[in-house]
Amino acid sequence: MSKPSRCFAFFVTPHGFGHASRAAAVAESLARRLPQYQFQFFTTIPEHHIAASIKDFHYQALDCDVGLVQTDALRADLPKTLQRLKTFLPFDSAEVQRLVAYLQRQRCTAVISDIAPLGLEVAHAADLPSVLVENFTWDWIYRGYALRHPRMGDYADHLSSIFARADLHLQCQPICHIKSGGILTSPVSRRFQKDPATVRSQLGLSPATKMVFISMGGTPHSLPDLEMLGKRYGDIAFVIAGHCPAQVTPSNVRLLPTNSPLFHPDLVRAANVVIGKAGYSTIAEVYQAGVPFGYFSRPESPEMPPLLSFLKEKIQGIHFTDNDYQTNAWLDHLSTLLSMPRIDRSREPNGADQCADAIAQLVGSQSV
Description:
Layout: E1 7-12, H1 18-33, E2 38-43, H2 47-51, E3 58-61, E4 70-72, E5 75-76, H3 78-88, H4 93-105, E6 108-114, H5 117-126, E7 130-134, H6 138-145, H7 151-163, E8 168-172, E9 183-185, H8 196-202, E10 210-215, H9 226-232, E11 236-241, E12 253-256, H10 264-270, E13 273-277, H11 280-289, E14 293-296, H12 304-314, E15 317-320, H13 322-327, H14 334-339, H15 351-362
Parallel strand pairs: 1-2, 1-6, 2-3, 6-7, 7-8, 8-9, 10-11, 10-13, 11-12, 13-14, 14-15
Antiparallel strand pairs: 4-5
Helix pairs in contact: 1-15, 4-5, 6-7, 8-10
């Protein structure tokens, strides 16, 4: 019986869809470089989200990280986060050994963690090369909350030693906290798959129609007063991802389910303006597409200041408050956003390819 091909194991935090988007982008780029490798994904992010980028992979639903417990797309519940951390850390040794044995049977070559510390713990126990892909790590985030919740500092100390074990440390712009020894990459964005004209045709829109794409990073959300979009902005198409609940809408509004067959990066590139949460994957996709961005920040998140600084410096757009989303006040600035020019970044590198090159170099001596 022949041995299975070698594989890469991806452990991905379920904190938002952005980390899975980044990991899928890196895996897709690796698959083009090393087609003989198989891919294993360990996460609770839905399988269809990864399958939008990479077709041939094995998926295991695994609760491999706590991150922050969210109350909605823009807020975290810190007391509940502490409750989860108490049961999650330290890692269950039997579960670590189960994963070690599994990866050994699969002839795993390297473990790649998008800020899920369990992956790094398993790699250490299995004596496998480990890769950390991040624009922040949980120890850094937790320290930002430690003044108000001192126990966060204890968990930050515990996780800091685990993150420090990574053999290859890839820091992807926009970076929250640059560390020595890491490799700095451009923003990591999933590759575009369809041209804007094709995407617009699938939405029933003409090339000349102004299109506003609204996305809250994979989290279900409810935009107030959809009827008003038809009455006041009938000549503009609003394409809204993940809107809940689904409902009858004006003719200029398209509601897309979270598992829409339309690829999120393609929707970003097809739009004249993107409106959404200032999360990593949306920022990276907006950056790659060069499209203007109206963005809502998450109150009190330590991640926000560096992300907002990057947005202000690199991306055409407007920063809105959480209240602007709830009241639709952002619409007062829509004409300004629509007048902003696109930025041509077609010749700039994608951080996914830079990550894949570094990982391929790490495992080069072990490639089959």
